[in-house]
């Protein structure tokens, strides 16, 4: 590992900064497979912390984990017309089930005699195979709601990839639910969006705007897509999680009906919802700085790193410190096994990796009632067995709150409006970024024109700005016609 | 769901009994993709309990979780000669990255214009891609040992499949480690086998025999394969976990060297080790009976199910009971939401699903200091706030111990010896099963002959019977030559 890795400053090259931060933090590495990333232990540990938090909340909604096949028969994709449109162009296709020696004498090839009768798709998402199973499991209203979730890998073939943000393979959870009524299904989709927002804000300290996607940005096969949109430090938006009300589209495609209490057959209503390792990209771009990764304590695999300094009776001191941390359930690590590294480089490394608190413990420090916090401005921490860990815990809470507050302030300061489309164009041309909240008359053609001309897209129609009467008397900032929504425009990743 | 599902008795058709048990317990379902299973919530919850237990122990050995790509470039497979031999004939091959409309006008096809330059293999195991990354991560002895693990899906194309036991896709963990010395690597492989045995016996209540595989049964690319072998109720063996000492084979194939303390370059030593959802098959076939699944409490998602009976002030009673269970960290479920089901069928269903304890709580039961345990012979349980949950906990421990003891007794009683190969053949022909421990002179041709003639294979050379001097003066039961090992033969799944 390169110890002296220099991180490109954000001001110099934001995109390179991002790549540098995740590499310097050892979160991720390029793999030999185009577009596929290797998630290194540090990145995986962050994902696992996030996963635990989200998994618990998903279970609390009465959803159960399950596992469905990686492969989807090609014909399944065609059953829902919009769905196939959305995914056919970016899927990995399995055509053979065996390799054989290449007759040219060099290497291997797919064995022509082991060609599959029907190609299989590596799942880009699992609606089709899950609804095929739901047909077997649902017969009566008593079987509803049926709520399952899986933690899985999915593949969407992308030409331009970036670790976490866009990659051919990524990890995610996908929830799929079946309901007896439209209202219940829609309510479920909205409830899950709330869960995502709660985790984004409460755990990752990423403030988000909740809203509805415009029809042209909906998930392929959905009647309505809800989204949480976050604002990165460079003023671009990042879609961080989506939840779909699928109407009866998949029930129709896969013939899934239930008998209601009156003994008559009805089509089932559906939702699906997912967040992915993309959230780690949002995490990096919300908090990190030119010194490297910054992790909110709630999601940091190590919340406090103890770096022993000097010689002497430090072991006992460390034990007292770690015992205190343990008593408060704080995740800590003692970095004492790398004798070839001085404390300075250790501090530097843990800073780059985003550990919230780094403290050094030297001989007699504990006797002298102190351990040294390395972050300037904080200075020495008073140490005594009863208060030290609580003090650390308080500091961790303050850091968590501070990160969320700072990000929220940035989001608020960068949410603005414009009086006209010309003004938006000029601002974007001049390099201004952020969220632009404007009255809008829903129109797919106009939306596409704006995207082509400015690269800005409708991130969502925010719930908070689309209550009853929200657009009364307002005119669309683009067409001048009566507005149908308040829309949030932005450049996006 | 069919409530009156009848489970085929073991004596009638063991194989059908297995299928019936896992279906009646709602652990698994057939998927529309040949050879791929759907793991239903109950099966998934059992796997998740097992996963948590194993994951914690893996981390305690200093191993970190990571994630590597699903796809492996075809050429990687060829780099290790034995490895490719082992896996080329059973892998799913991705050849295209897009679908297009079939010109015949019907449906879709792999787009000929989106053919990959080099086919990708869906990982059957990840040694090759991981060792390609290890080359980037290892340069000095200070980088060693390097120990990573991933929880992932893998695909091995099988023609004859059975849920959990043998399926095209399955879930597993695969650990991969790199070491500076042969001794350390071999020690690591043996340590992980101990971890597997501990989880099999301590959590799943499956007694196992630890040992070394014969050379012809080794993992493709290993210098030595260690295994835990369990004995199912029908007297067949089930390989339940393996750990491989890979020597320097993958280091050579992927050119992974480290600088030792003397500044000279050496090849790295390797291990890999894995257990899979196959363990769930072992679990089912070790404890279950003609009434359905039997789960050891340690791995049961629900340890106690509370079934309310009668009417009256039962809600308060239930609350007292559940509060008591919660205080002891017991996993419980109150089955109170299915008003259309009588207590009888509920009991029957939870029994089929393997819940260790099923208790009914009726009005005034708690006041009367009792709840009814449904398992005969146990009768009413005295209930009072302080002792009830401890009593339940004690019962759960007894059930756990009882299952292990019974399985261990069966394993011991069914481990026997034979004086000659003729005796073995006769016994197997007469339908006798179990483990046969015999002196053996290692010989791949003889091993193959025995397999062809009797379908019995060497499950392992048990550690416990291959200590120093174990074969002194003994002659091979087949060839009559000086024995090299004590070998354990059995029919196996």
Automatic annotation (TrEMBL), chains A, B:
Q: State a single Pfam family of this protein.
A: HGTP_anticodon
Upper lineage = Eukaryota, Cryptophyceae, Pyrenomonadales, Geminigeraceae, Guillardia
Catalyzed reaction equations: tRNA(Pro) + L-proline + ATP = L-prolyl-tRNA(Pro) + AMP + diphosphate
The source organism is Guillardia theta (strain CCMP2712) (Cryptophyte)
Keywords attached to this entry: Aminoacyl-tRNA synthetase, ATP-binding, Ligase, Nucleotide-binding
Transmembrane segment boundaries: none
Give GO terms: molecular function aspect only.
Answer: ATP binding; proline-tRNA ligase activity
Q: Which CDD domains match?
A: ProRS_core_arch_euk
Q: Which Gene3D superfamilies match?
A: Anticodon-binding domain, Bira Bifunctional Protein, Domain 2, C-terminal domain of ProRS
Domain Aminoacyl-transfer RNA synthetases class-II family profile: where? 43-296
According to the UniProt entry, the coiled-coil residues are none
- Which SMART domains would you find in this protein's record? ProRS-C_1
Give any Gene Ontology cellular component: aminoacyl-tRNA synthetase multienzyme complex
Q: Which PANTHER family does this UniProt record tie to the protein? A: PROLINE--TRNA LIGASE, CHLOROPLASTIC_MITOCHONDRIAL (PTHR43382:SF3), PROLYL-TRNA SYNTHETASE (PTHR43382)
- Catalytic activity, EC: 6.1.1.15
Question: What processes in GO biological process is this protein linked to?
Answer: prolyl-tRNA aminoacylation
InterPro entries for this protein: aa-tRNA-synt_IIb (IPR002314), aa-tRNA-synth_II (IPR006195), aa-tRNA-synth_II/BPL/LPL (IPR045864), Anticodon-bd (IPR004154), Anticodon-bd_dom_sf (IPR036621), Pro-tRNA-ligase_IIa_arc-type (IPR004499), Pro-tRNA_ligase_II_C (IPR016061), Pro-tRNA_synth_II (IPR017449)
**This protein's name:** proline--tRNA ligase
């Amino acid at each position: 590992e390169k110890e002296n890795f220099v991180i490109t400053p954000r001001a110099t090259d934001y995109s390179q900064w991002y790549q540098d931060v995740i590499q310097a933090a050892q979160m991720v590495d390029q793999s030999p497979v185009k577009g596929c990333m290797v998630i290194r232990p540090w990145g995986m540990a962050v994902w696992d912390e996030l996963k635990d938090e989200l998994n618990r909340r998903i279970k609390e909604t009465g959803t159960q984990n399950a596992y469905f096949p990686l492969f989807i028969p090609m014909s399944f994709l065609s059953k829902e017309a919009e769905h196939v449109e959305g995914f056919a162009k970016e899927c990995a296709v399995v055509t053979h089930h065996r390799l054989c020696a290449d007759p040219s004498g060099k290497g291997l090839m797919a064995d022509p005699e082991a060609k599959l009768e029907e190609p299989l798709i590596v799942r880009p998402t699992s609606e089709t195979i899950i609804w095929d199973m739901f047909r077997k499991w649902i017969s009566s209203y008593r079987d509803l709601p049926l709520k399952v979730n899986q933690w899985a890998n999915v593949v969407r073939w992308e030409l331009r990839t970036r670790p976490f943000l866009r990659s051919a393979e990524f990890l995610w959870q996908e929830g799929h639910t079946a309901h007896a009524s439209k209202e219940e299904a829609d309510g479920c989709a909205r409830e899950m969006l709330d869960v995502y927002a709660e985790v984004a804000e409460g755990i990752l300290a990423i403030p988000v705007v909740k809203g509805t996607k415009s029809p042209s940005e909906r998930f392929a096969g959905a009647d309505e897509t809800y989204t949480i949109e976050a604002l990165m430090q460079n003023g671009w938006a990042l879609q961080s999680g989506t939840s779909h009300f699928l109407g009866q589209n998949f029930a129709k495609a896969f013939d899934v009906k239930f008998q209601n209490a009156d003994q008559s057959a009805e089509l089932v209503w559906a939702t699906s919802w997912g967040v992915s390792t993309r959230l780690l990209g949002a995490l990096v771009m919300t908090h990190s700085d030119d010194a490297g990764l910054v992790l909110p304590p709630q999601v940091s695999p190590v919340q406090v790193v103890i770096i022993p300094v000097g010689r002497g009776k430090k072991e006992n001191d460390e034990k007292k410190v770690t015992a205190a941390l343990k008593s408060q359930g704080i995740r800590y690590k003692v970095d004492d096994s790398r004798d070839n590294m001085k404390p300075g480089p250790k501090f530097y490394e843990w800073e780059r990796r985003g550990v919230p608190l780094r403290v050094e413990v030297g001989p007699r420090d504990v006797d002298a009632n102190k351990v040294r916090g390395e972050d300037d401005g904080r200075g020495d921490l008073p140490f005594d067995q009863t208060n030290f860990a609580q003090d650390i815990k308080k500091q961790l809470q303050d850091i968590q709150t501070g990160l969320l507050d700072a990000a929220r302030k940035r989001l608020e300061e960068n949410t603005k409006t414009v009086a006209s489309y010309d003004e938006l164009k000029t601002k974007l041309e001049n390099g201004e970024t952020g969220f632009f909240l404007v009255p809008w008359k829903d129109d797919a053609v106009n939306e596409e024109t704006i995207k082509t001309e400015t690269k800005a897209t409708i991130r969502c129609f925010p719930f908070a700005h689309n209550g009853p009467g929200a657009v009364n008397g307002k005119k669309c900032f683009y067409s001048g016609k009566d507005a149908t929504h308040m829309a949030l425009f932005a450049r996006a990743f």
